[in-house]
Amino acid sequence: xxxxxxxVVLGSxxxxxxxxxxxxxxxxxxxxxxxxxxxxxxxxxxxxPFLPAPNRAVWPYIAASTLLEALYSFGLVLAYKLGEFGxxxxxxxxxxxxxxxxxxTFVVGQPxxxxxxxxxxxxxxxxxxxxxxxGLPTRKDLPAVLAAVGTGLxxxxxxxxxxxxxRRAGTVLGxxxxxxxxxxxxxxxxxxxxxxxxxxxxxRVDTARGLGGGVISLTAYTLVLWAxxxxxLAAVAxxxxxxxxxxxxxxxxxxxxxxxxxxxxxxxxxxxxILLIAH
Length: 279
Description:
- Belongs to the EamA transporter family.
- The chain is mainly alpha-helical.
- About 80% of the residues lie in helices and about 0% in strands.
- The protein has one domain.
- The protein is built from 13 helices and no strands.
């Protein structure tokens, strides 16, 4: 993987952790996720007339990715509602890399180099250690953990779908914008059905935070899509999850959720894995 691709993915990871922290710290997380989706959708609606349309062959992938992204959004809301950010974020994001690596290698047909394979293993182990740094989950934690793991599986699914499709789309920006636009429609409709009369008033809380998060979210994932056209799918997906390191730092420094020796050691392992992947 070239240094340029590594830099782009790590930049995307930073942006991704920022918008997740914005969503987690919002007073109303469902409203925040809805505003994030709305801002991204409106941005894409304004841009699409000036962008080439994706090739017709990838529209089924766009439909599948849109549904998976919507599931991911609501799964994230549930996980953040049930558990703390510093733990749910690593579990949700850390579930994805190994699943993507296995599917990319044995289904998609993108073999990894030896360094990439070892690096993915080291990063995944570090992410798991971050998720478990406060001890094994108790029975009380089970609903939150299940929500986070389910969210992680949705992440792995849309990552593979998009990793295959974006190479065939003929346009990264066009592909990305259609997914975010369609996803915003689904999220708006579902939230409106849940909130009913409280729908519009709920969007007046933390409006600036949500709208800003939407632009950050769109930028972060579009960068990843570009990287997926240049690098190995599993390696890109794993590097992207280094956003967990930033999320853990935000959880400790901003949300005062603690860091500790275990998280420091796990973070060092993740950095080592990144160096191996980027070798």
